[in-house]
Design a protein that fits this description.
Blueprint lengths: L1 E12 L3 E8 L4 E7 L12 E6 L4 E4 L12 E10 L3 E8 L2 E8 H7 L6 E6 L5 E4 L1
Antiparallel strand pairs: 1-2, 1-4, 2-3, 4-10, 5-9, 6-7, 6-9, 7-8
């Protein structure tokens, strides 16, 4: 499980979900989508939070210039790679915080990354969990 620290900058409430804008301790920002119960959320703007997301939900790219619904792109440096025939666990240094991604080995090999390479990484807002510190 990956963990980052941040602060909720804004919440747009809807039903059954709310959209969060979170400023990360690294200086970047991240979005999250979480359940909203009858238009109410359990967090508020200004809350200091921990952001959790699974390594299975991190998407890696060598370079990226396309348009998607994922608006936040992050940069990291490949620190460690652990592969077997099926899967590869990639550990990135993201501004001093380690972020892990689990990808198919064949996909990892096709990208041609090695330790020390810069990599783009993405996380879909629906896969981010927000917890109050």
């Amino acid at each position: 499980m990956n963990k980052l620290n941040g602060k909720i900058e804004g919440i747009t409430s809807g039903s059954p979900y709310a959209s969060y804008e979170i400023s990360l301790a690294t200086g970047d920002s991240m979005a999250a989508i979480a359940p909203s119960f009858s238009g109410r959320v359990c967090h508020k703007a200004g809350d200091t939070v921990e952001i959790f997301f699974d390594e299975l939900d991190v998407v890696l790219a060598k370079s990226f210039s396309g348009e998607t619904t994922i608006k936040k792109k992050f940069m990291g440096v490949v620190k460690r790679v652990e592969s077997d025939a099926a899967t590869t666990r990639v550990v990135l240094d993201y501004k001093g915080t380690l972020v892990a991604a689990l990808v198919r080995t064949s996909s990892w090999q096709a990208l041609g990354f090695t330790v020390g390479d810069d990599v783009n990484w993405f996380i879909k807002a629906t896969r981010v969990n927000v917890g109050i510190l």
